[in-house]
Amino acid sequence: MRRAVIVMLDGLRRDFVDERRTPHLAALTERGERFSGYRSAFPSATRVVSSTLATGCHPARHELQGNTMVLMEEGRLVRHDAGLPDFLQWKRRVTGRSLAMPTLAERVAGHGGAIIFNNVSPGAAYAHDPDGHGHVHHRTGSYGPGRTPLARQLDIALDAAGDRVMTERFITEALDGSGPALSVIWFGEPDHIQHEKPLGSPEHLAVLREADRHLGMIVAAVNRLREGGDEVLLIAGSDHGHETVTGIIDIEDELVGAGLKASLESDDIVIAANGTAALVYVHPDHANRLDPLDDFLRTRPWAGAVIGADDLGKVGQAPMHGLAFAISLKGDDAPNAFGVPGSCLAAKPQGGKVDRLGFGQHGGLNAYEQSPILVIDGPGFASGASRSAPAAVVDIAPTVLSHLGLSADGMDGTPLQASSQVSRSPAPEDRS
């Protein structure tokens, strides 16, 4: 039986992968093929990347623009946290669709099915299968086909111990002899600890070792499947990296101070903070502010990159729901107290969330947040090789479908198998 297994270690940047800190993943890089040119989506944030991985399309086409994003509702710009459990169901009511492109779960529904285990935000988890084509297990709620609640829920915490319980269930329920064609497990760590403790700290490294140990358990289970005759494609990676936050920027407050936004509560211009990135939405009734807004943003010392509406396609976005500008906040290679390079400014969090000053964050186009890890082990990939050609999250879905012998028509990405004739689709620009 042909099967694909995807393992995602949320937030792991590739320069943390070595024999000392991540021995199981380091060993897998010797057995599989490593992609040194692999990049995240934009914003480099989990809900965006989850939708991009699931659909094989950029946000311009699947339409989940950010971890925080805006919808045009009854003529008003309304900001939403895309991580909430019911966000995609609400988006369907507003726009007519949860995601605008089919997911892997939908594409394999009649060809062996899909099981997803996930321990990040519920919105990111459900983005893999928002319309109920397979099985999704998450601590907020687990669902089968038709989004029918499952009798056995995933009662875990967002930490390394929770990831361990989830790993054990994943191996038992998804990696047995009668498992599905596609199995996905997405760890909450090391992303969770990197938001709470400094990068490179003893606490961070201890949790990183646990995440790597969980990966090792899955690799061993895949080995058993192969010994039993299954042809398994194993994809192990992460969705984005992290950088250390050295300052917090309140973009909306600055716009109000400059007279470009009526008030912090007004919906003429709405900022959607996405960690070290921000999306700027302008109501069509206030299009006369676009030019002065462009001039203002490009002169800000905190703006590392400002992408206007005409250039949004270069970072995989489109001017939907009033999206007028995308900003990647300024970063550099400065190390933190533990010698970990990569520092960046972050947008002031919204919805009562705390800032991550001194800790890890992501979302933008800077070097380390755009340096996730990707290793693929199986047919079509060279053992122990390192491929430097560009690759991106958007390529994972067509790679899975190619292995399963299914069509990837309509996707932005391309299969990464060595035999594929690769025609690169746009990927986030490097702003390092």
Please describe the topology of this protein.
Blueprint: E1 2-9, H1 23-31, E2 33-35, E3 38-39, H2 46-55, H3 59-62, E4 68-73, E5 76-81, H4 87-95, H5 104-107, E6 114-118, H6 122-126, E7 135-137, E8 143-144, E9 148-149, H7 160-174, E10 182-187, H8 191-196, H9 202-227, E11 231-237, E12 243-249, H10 251-257, E13 269-274, E14 277-282, H11 290-298, E15 303-308, E16 323-329, E17 331-335, E18 341-347, E19 360-361, E20 374-377, E21 386-387, E22 391-392, H12 396-404
Parallel strand pairs: 1-10, 1-11, 2-21, 3-22, 6-7, 6-10, 12-18
Antiparallel strand pairs: 2-20, 4-5, 8-9, 11-20, 12-19, 13-14, 14-16, 15-16, 17-18
Helix pairs in contact: 1-9, 7-9
Describe the protein in words.
The protein has 432 residues and is α/β, with parallel strands linked by helices. It folds into two domains: 2-243 and 369-404, Alkaline Phosphatase, subunit A (3-Layer(aba) Sandwich); 245-361, Gyrase A, domain 2 (2-Layer Sandwich). 26% of the residues lie in helices and 24% in strands. The protein has twelve helices and 22 strands. It has helices at residues 23-31, 46-55, 59-62, 87-95, 104-107, 122-126, 160-174, 191-196, 202-227, 251-257, 290-298, 396-404; strands spanning 2-9, 33-35, 38-39, 68-73, 76-81, 114-118, 135-137, 143-144, 148-149, 182-187, 231-237, 243-249, 269-274, 277-282, 303-308, 323-329, 331-335, 341-347, 360-361, 374-377, 386-387, 391-392. It has an eight-stranded mixed β-sheet with strand order 7-6-10-1-11-20-2-21, with helices on both faces. A four-stranded mixed β-sheet has the order 17-18-12-19. It has a four-stranded antiparallel β-sheet with strand order 13-14-16-15, covered by helices on one side. Helix 7 (160-174) packs parallel to helix 9 (202-227). The longest helix is centred in the middle third of the chain and has 26 residues, at 202-227. Mean pLDDT is 96; it is low at 421-427.
